[in-house]
# Entry
Amino acid sequence: MRHWADKLYRRTGGGTYPTASPALSVLAVVVLIAAFLVPAILKEHGELADVHPSVPMGDRSWRVVYPRQGGNDPVTEADCPISPLCLARPENPLLWMSHFRRSGDDLGYHFGRLRDLESEHYWLGLRIPPEKLKEALRLDATRFLVGYFFSSFDVYVDGKLWDRFDQKLIRRPLMLEFSRERLAAAREISVAIRVKRNPGESFPDDFHSVRTGFATERESAFWARSSVFAYQSKPFFLVGFSLSLSLFFLLLWLFNRDRREYGAMAAFNLLEVLRQGLEMSFVWSQLPGLAWYQVNFVAVSYQAVFGLVLAFSIARFRSGPQAVVLPLALLIPVPVALTASTGLGLWSHAVFTERYVVPGTYLLGAFLCGAQWWALRAEEKQAVLMDRFRRFKLGAFSAGFAVLGAFQFFASRELDELTSTLPYTFRMATLLVTVIMSAFVMADIRRSQHLIKKIPISPFHRRNRLPDEVRCVLLSLDLKGSEELFRLGARLGVGGDLVHACVEGMMRVLHARGFEIVSTEGDSIVAFLETQEPAAGVRRAAHVLPELEAELLSLAADYGSRHGLNAGIHFRSALGYGAIRPVWVKIGGVDRPEWTEAGSGNLFVEIARMLEGERAVAPPGVSTLVLPEAYSAFSRDEESLELVQRSMEVRDKNHQTHRVGLVVVRPAGQTTAWQEAG
# Structure
């Protein structure tokens, strides 16, 4: 996982800093694919939602007979269809005249009775009148749609066994096909179904998702497609897309642990993966009845929890209360699910949570983000803070949570309707709103990258783990006669702009030659060049000095022609080789990037002392370089660097003696013979 997370990082100068460019490209491809698939899926559902049986049966057509409480019931356990007590026989009135119906107001009573029927049987019966048969024959509707069954059941037609199903049908409606001759006979057809409530299965039958009735060949084909669409195509698409978003934000969060919204977005999309995965036929078939209800209840509960966590992270809510509330909210659903004895109770809890708790948390999230938006707006009016993008992002998330809450509230009332457009619209709306939210988070990533590039910190400070040492050539420079530039700037009314232009020009040259700027103060610059080879590193660093001299010569000529500057602009410099290391220093609650010595050396102090000694020995009106005696033996083929003293003593303000070499720097392009004095 860390390997793939590292792919989200671009390396520059040995450092790393977060960039989502590769992942954003992959995600853009996924979004592009979704842009083509979503209209196709909505079109497919629109066609399926408009298909109904040509000859529908009434809503209260199915009658039910339950076993007696407290023991075996000879009526429901009769040997069918041989026994005259068999309820499937048309002449036995117990089923066909039963007062209990499986529809309408009796549906709650029906599932309540099933709660106590563990591994027992009950009967469903329906009589199709002759007028329905004639209409079906006229419309050539020979297939009779019954509904879904998720337990073992036997089907009897006119008292004869039609077929036996020892295992539950996985998301496929039961369909009975009659011949045209049987329909033409116009005799009443009796359909009886003996259902066994398998252990753990709280809803053995489901006629709510299918309208019972006669369907044509085209309509029955649409219903077959509807099962594939509802429980394979749609969930697979939503799982794949949500999983892509989840993995994307998970990888971002792995290397940005302080950005809680990345982890929250990953968890939020992962919950959507779980919710849609539970609708897949494969998952449905592998999970026992009770286990499915347990996982579904936990998933619905966590949907509310992580929706609120996402709102907290976007609104930057204080983490103290979350540390108490979040663990409790994550733990409570698990024991509730594990201690449940039937799926019916869990289903009732899940429905309540989905109808009221989840929309409530979404609306609370909308309120939290909206409150933060309003607070930022008030601060902007007072010119205290100007962060329009963050306010815009908070407004977008507030609106997104409000839309999700409204959709969840209304769609949860029809989530069992296979032909209802609202649940599918809700899932697509959830996907759309999630994508929009993700787009704002990704825009925030790009904005952070843009701001990071403007922050004056080295690539070494951008690393997740700071290096213990950086072997380098350290170079310190400051301008000679900068007082004249400051006085000229004051006379012209531009303050220190002239000095700043000189410093900026030197930094530009140093950066182009691979130097990292350590610090700038007034007219001085400290920079380093990373290298593992002292002699070669000193030579490379020294080669930059003639370019700096040429830059200052150009600026002096420009200032002389425009502002009447009579003096030249030169610098003094010192360099040495050693080890330094990056550190973060907390000042006033803010971490600031700094550098300090590493190992046994004291490079910063040594360079500063050599620069102080240069003032006493350097010739006037030229740019100079002071460096340790060990590195002063330059080749006589070098250009623009004139070795004045190979070995000399200089004293710093603490009266300490240093053996150094002194080099005069000429502008790049001007050559001079080597001279050695002393």
